[in-house]
Every structure is written in structure tokens, then in C-alpha cells.
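Re: the 258-residue chain
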Amino acid sequence: MKVLLANDDGVFAPGIRGLFKELSPHHDTTIIAPLEERSTTGHSLSLDKPLRIERLEENIYGCTGFPSDCVLMGLGHVLKNSRPEVIVSGINRGANLGQDLYYSGTIAAAREGTFHHVPSIAVSLVFNSVTEEHLYSVAATAIKWCLGADIHRTIHPMTLLNINVPNIPLNEIKGFKLTEIGFRRYSEEIHARLDAREREYYWIAGIYEGYESNPESDCEAVKNGWIAITPQALIDRCNKDYSELANCIERLNAKYFT
């Protein structure tokens, strides 16, 4: 299967490289990702400046644009004559749970693929501290299993899958779980500073304060050791019958977590 990988952490990030390493032996895999970090850039597109793309290694390209630009460069240029069958964005460094998906460049890349009728998946590794070991291989294995189970064939048009993987060893994960979008709470702190010329500048300093209780949410699932698979419908008329996806998740759990 032909797979296009993108992200918002940049082409050299360990998450996307780990995903490439895991998928390449099984699929025709290409990376097109930003040359610099583009986290929390949302669904930005470079309409007012030219883009450049650089071949770094075989099947690995760096692009000067945003995550959505990278997907468009893949569909309209690099893979123009060999269209990918699925797009995977990630593995993101940190959670994309709840309403965070609206800020995320990782989600934006998957959303751009969905807009162009390519089944698209975003995947993130959820950890509590930047100092803890980041188990990208666990998330990469989960995505390999999902693609092996043809999960992309269960994705309805104009819908993407947002997958969040807890940062715990594989043998501690309880399984895959179909979830809905939760809600995370942040403070509204703004920190004021003075520069060397005594002029004020500001940092947005909102602190994560937990999530709203909902046993069906992606937030709850990840906290309890599950891999959260959350479909996001992009337009109101999308088919929201996820029974086929639920059946695929049931098969995955039966194969890998029993």
C-alpha cells in the first residue's frame, strides 16, 4: 500500500522517523514534512509565498511550508502520478485530545488529506512530561496494526481518524477503544515581561487543568491505558454510523490484546 506521512514537528522529528521505520518494510512509504517545527499552526496554507521542497533521503522530503502544504505537495507534485492510498500524520510529540485538535498542525495535515478524498489518520503520543522516555515505537506499532486491519477502509468520506496512544509499554496498554471528542480545561494566564528596551511583551501561559468527566471521551480512554480512536466528521452531513469502525477495533483487540 502507498502511504504518505506528514507531521507538524518537522521532518527530523523522532515520531515521524519511527513511524517511517515501522511502516516502510510493509508499505511503500513516503515522508513529506516541514523542514522546521510547525506545531499549533492549525490549518495554515502558504498562499502568499512560494514553497521549496528538498529530497533529504530516498522517499523522505522536507518542505518549507506548513503541514497542510506538505500534504498538498504530496498529492499535487511528489506523488502526483502515484496517489497515496492513506495519509498518516504524526507521530505527534504530545497529545491531540479534546478540542486541542482545532489548534493542531498534525490534525490539519490529516484534515487536508480528507478534503482531497484520501483516507487520513492523525496519531499522537500522550505523555505527562517532556523528561519521560517517549515510546514512539508503541504508537508506530499500533498504526502498523491498524493499517494491517484495513482501518482506513472504514473511514467515511469527509471524516478523519484521530488516534491518541498513551506513553506506556505495549504490554500495559489495554487495547483500542472507539471514543468521542472530549474537552480539556486550560487557565487563561498571560505572562507579561519587559525586554532590554523596557518594552512589554507577553507569553500565552495557559496551564492544563484537567478534562471534563466523560467515560466515552478520548481523554478518559487514554488516562485509563487505552489507545483512543476518535472519528471526526468534518461536515454536518457526514455519515456518523461507526459500526464498521467499531467492528475493526473489535478485531484488533481480539488479535493483539487478548
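DSSP finds six helices and 13 strands in the chain.
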